[in-house]
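Apologies for my clumsy wording, but can you show me some protein sequence, whichever is easiest, together with the matching structure tokens, please?
=====
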Amino acid sequence: MLQYRALLEELEGISSEERIQLVILKWIASLGEEEGDKLLAKFGGAEGASSTADQNQLLLMLVRVHCEAKQSTHVHDTAENRYTAISYIHIFIHFFIH
């Protein structure tokens, strides 16, 4: 969510909806081809169906959902997490291989 908050901070003070959209699209492009294409595919046909302000709201919602999804699957490499992973491996070996 840090990236999402940084994007919102970057958008603060920009009054032009067109400029806001360019900043959002630039951010989406920085995700890389695969992730960016997925977001833009979800955005889909909304471009011609609404105002630029509405498009920006939709784009920001998609970016937020993307960031939340990435955060929910993000795992820090800590000693505790490594210990837990090793414990699960030992349990698996004990019950399924022996």
Remarks:
- Helices lie at 2-11, 17-29, 33-43, 46-49, 52-73, 79-97.
